[in-house]
Each structure stands twice: as C-alpha cells, then as structure tokens.
Amino acid sequence: MKKYNFSAGPAILPQEVFAEASQAVVDFAGIGLSILEISHRSKEFQAVMDEAQALVKELLGLSDDFEVLFLQGGASTQFAMIPMNFLGENETAGYVDTGSWSTKAIKEAKRYGGTSVLASSKEDNFNHIPKGYDIPADLKYLHITSNNTIFGTEYHSLPDTDVPVVADMSSNIFSKPIDVDRYGLIYAGAQKNMGPAGTTLVIVKKDFLAKQVREVPTMLDYNTHVGKQSMFNTPPVFAIYVSMLTLRWVKAQGGVTGVQKLNQAKADLLYSTIDDSSLFYNPVAKEDRSLMNVTFLMKNKDLEADFLAAATAAGCSAIKGHRSVGGFRASIYNAMDLEGVKVLTEVITDFDKKHG
Amino acid sequence: MKKYNFSAGPAILPQEVFAEASQAVVDFAGIGLSILEISHRSKEFQAVMDEAQALVKELLGLSDDFEVLFLQGGASTQFAMIPMNFLGENETAGYVDTGSWSTKAIKEAKRYGGTSVLASSKEDNFNHIPKGYDIPADLKYLHITSNNTIFGTEYHSLPDTDVPVVADMSSNIFSKPIDVDRYGLIYAGAQKNMGPAGTTLVIVKKDFLAKQVREVPTMLDYNTHVGKQSMFNTPPVFAIYVSMLTLRWVKAQGGVTGVQKLNQAKADLLYSTIDDSSLFYNPVAKEDRSLMNVTFLMKNKDLEADFLAAATAAGCSAIKGHRSVGGFRASIYNAMDLEGVKVLTEVITDFDKKHG
After folding, report:
1. Complex-level ipTM
2. Is the pTM value of this prediction over 0.80?
3. Range(s) of the domain holding residue B133
C-alpha cells in the first residue's frame, strides 16, 4: 500500500531523490565508490558542495552580498551561535515569541546580551503571529521563527522595520520566494524541505557578518566556515549531497515560485475540508495559517482514536498532533503531492459523514 | 575494475553496509518509507539509536559507568566543548602534541583554562609518540590523540598516570580493544572506522561528567545530550543508522579483538613490504607505527608521479600523502581487507623491481 508521509520532520522528500541517493550509496557518479566513503576533498564532492551552494543562491535570488554555509548541529546550535557571535553585552536583540522554538532561541540569547521579547502569543497557546508591536530602531537584530511547526502558524509578511531580521526558517525555507534583502541571517535545519537530518543551512549577509562582537571557539565562528567554504573540517557529506539533489528537484518544479503554487493549492484544499467539516477545526488565526503544517483538532476527543485508525488504513502516516496542541497535524512540505493531500481530505470527509 | 579505497577519511566501510544502507534509503525496515524521511521519534529509529548505543558498549566493554552519545560537529567541535565544560580558569589540563589535530585541540583549550603541553614531537615533524615526560598528578585531564592520521603514528600503550585520559580516537576507535577505565572521555568523528561523516561519538564516564566547571550553551552541554539520550534535538539519523550497521559488522568479525588481528596482519604486510623495498621508506619510529595510516615516502621524488600512476592503474585510490608529510599514505581501516593491501604491496614490489 502506498504510504503518504505527513511527518513534521525529518520529513518527506521527493521519491526521485531517494532513488538517486540510494544508487549513490553503492556507486556515486560512476566512480566505483560509495558517496559514504569518498573524501570531502575529492573533486567529486567539491562539485556537490559547489552546486548545493549555487542552487541555494539561485533559488532564493541571493546576490554576492550573501554567504551560504552548510553546518552541523541543527537550528538548536544556531540559537546560541547567533547571539554568541553577534549580540554584545551592552546591545539588545528583539525576539518575537511564537512557540517552543522561539522560546528556546530566547533562552540562549540571554546568556550573551540584552534580549527584548517584543511580542508573544503564548497566552493563546501560540495560535497566531503577533502584530502591531513596537520595534525599537536600535536593536542589533530582530529574531523571528518564520514557520512554527508545532502550532501551525506562519509569517505571511515580515514585520515593518529597518532592523536586520534573523530568521529560523527550518520548516518553510524553499517553500516560497522571500525578500532576502530584509535578512541579516537565515538558518534552517535541513530535515523538512531541504534534505535529511544532519546539516544546517546558514545564509548570512556580509555586512551582518562584519558586526561580530566577540571572539568565539573556532567551530562556532561563522568566519571559520565562510573562509573555508564549509570545509574547515569534514562536512556531513551525505546530508549535503541529498540536499543538493532536493534543491535540483525544487528547481525542476519551477523554483520556489513553482512550489509555492502547489503548496497554496494543497493548503487551500486541506484547510477548506477542515473548515467545512462538522467534527474538525483548525485553531489558528486564518491569516496566520501555515502552508506547511496544518493542525486540526476534534471537537469530540472520543473519536480521535477511530479517526487515526481510518487515516492509517488509508496510508496516511505520522498525522498525530504534537502534545502541545493535541489532535492531528498534517505536514505538507514541498515533496507532498496533491494526491497525498486528497487522500487525507477524503478520509476527513468520509469520517465526517459517518460520525458528524 | 575493482577499486581499493585507501582514503584517510571519509573512508572505506564494509560493502555489506553500503548494500543495506542503499536499500534503507528507498525502504527502511519494510515500512514503505525511506530512512531519510522518518521521524527520529519513530519506534523504528529509536530501535536504531538503542542498538547503536548498545553495540558501542558491548564492543568496547563499557560498564554502566559510561554514557554513550551521538553528537554532531566532528572532533573539531569536541576540541572546544571539552575544555568549555571541564577546564576551569584556575585548573590545568595536560596535552601531548602529536600533530595537527592535537595542535588544534590545544588552541581551543587555551580559551578556558591552563594548558600545559607536556611533550611534543613537532621538531621531528611528528614522526614519533613522545615518551618519558612528567605528568603532574593534579592535572584536570590528560589529552592525547590516540592515532595521528596525517603522520601515521599511534599510541600502542597509554602514558603511566592516574590522571583521567581524554582521547581523540577519531581514526582508530573500534580497531582494537582499549582499557576503558583509564579514560574520562573518548571522542571520535565517525568517518573512519565507525560510519560516514556526520556524527561524532562521545563516550564519557559519569564521574568525569560530574566535574563540569561552568554553565555552557544548551547544545554544548554534555548533560543536555545525556539527559535526552542524544535526542534533545533532531539527531543525524542516517549517519547514526550507518554507524549502527558498521558496528554490527565489527561484531560479526569477532569484535574489536577480531578486527585487531586482521589490522595487525595488514599493517605487518604493508610495513614489511616498504621496509624491504629500496625505493620507499616509512618515516615513523617503528614502535609508534600506526596500524591505520601507513605513510611511505620515496627517496627519489622524481619517481612519485610514475608510482601514483601505477597504483591508480591497479585500482588503488586515494594514496597521495598529506602535504605535511608528502609521498604516499595508505589508510587501512577495519573495512579494508587483506586482498586490498596485497594489491598495493604488489604494486610497490613490482615498481621497486623495475626502478630500484
């Protein structure tokens, strides 16, 4: 039976990517060696790294004002690396608190300098993106979480400010075009739209990089990795290779504009099915609904186990909601096709007819 | 033509591991999903993590006094994490300088506390492991690099001291039994004997862990990862999975005692061939020769290009020496079989007969 993978992360990637990656594990680029055993200094891997960087630049429309890095340690390491490098003891960074990941980022920043939590939707269990708050012009940077995987909210426009934005885009990078010039630094764990777990994309503007405030350990210094083009030490070769394959696929879909259209169509179908049902509802403010992670709760919790069984029987995998929200969550990243969303909406509609 | 991969790292892994990993990239454990797209919280991946940890413990004979972690960032990140966590401003750690990696570890430690470089073989281009130096009893720890990939030297016995040893075992872990109770902390980038690039093994003794001296960022705190069994954030799923497969293979070879026998036989054959030749020599003190990385230089450098061509024609890949030593280097990690070493020794012997 075909499986439809709605996992929040690590998450679905294109089938073509799995096929090509599987082949490379036994024989990469026809050289008679596995991608897992070749030197990162080999010309074959250098070509992968170069293409991965070039694709990031091309897909997001980055000028040469930006550096593109493939690091390790996940977004969680970036939570600390960013203020460690950029937030002086007597400086203040603004943070918007839109859920668990923002909260963790704020915790790490407090070790290094002033942090001002400009707005939070915590009291409403993070069911919306705060708006209309004041953003002081002298902030070192403004940190946002562009999409909140757990709560299913997403920024559809940036706050109005000249302060450089630092964004955790782990769960919506490469899902739509972005206004890159507004950002000082963008970071993303690969394991949603970009590739498998094991590498972290960092995009940093050169003029932001120049604002480093303190000396830090070699591996935690962005300049180390910029200077060596992400090859200061052995990079996570396979995770970067699979990311490169995935970015090639994004390009073949018409780039981020192409995938955005499909993402909008999938989200429209799923949200309208939920809205039209009598048993399910989405708890998020309509204007802030995520195109990536769709949460849906049941008014009658007693039916949850039955619905989960029906969805599982139809091949829908990993739709259980996060414990912070409950109910269900369907993550519909780039690689989820419209067919998969249709299968899930049919399960919802059928269940609603039977029990609603 | 069959290729024999003598790369220093990322390096050769068993063919059976490549075959099984390749299959898991398209369908893991028969669940209809790729190992690259499943949640790290899934029961299928939890089983991988549990087995990987258990295999590390079993193969090295670790009691419950030790914690086993799979982190990211390579040995290079450990260079800083270790003193950041364990070296107080008014404490001193001893370091033995046996090459580039030791030198990098010393540089990071100096940021946090006292470092005493007890001995160095730098003046002899690191061609031996220093011996007979004094080790003060009040050192917080003694740091060594157990095998020096670039220079081809290896510790065959530990320095005589009661100070807890901290060892970078990136290039010889799981190649032989070790006296685990002498160590406070062992770390190793996976990409030689353990798996592909992308995860870092850390083994830490509980009583050493208790000697943490300062609060550090969440992701750089060993206790974070101990408390969450390496799942505080998304771990590098695939790199851990392939490491688990490789450790299963080590076990099937008779464990570290089994692979040690083969490693000794391979090294004996290669070193004796070099010693018996008229054109080649190994620059390392005999008692310190590495069983993992065999360096061999030519007395007449004009013949190097011809030898490289002959070796390449025989299928021997990645034998060019590191620029710090020159000449040639054959890395003969666990997964290199005796046949591969025989092919290389035949090239050496034939070349010696023709040009010697």
Report:
1. 0.98
2. yes
3. 15-252
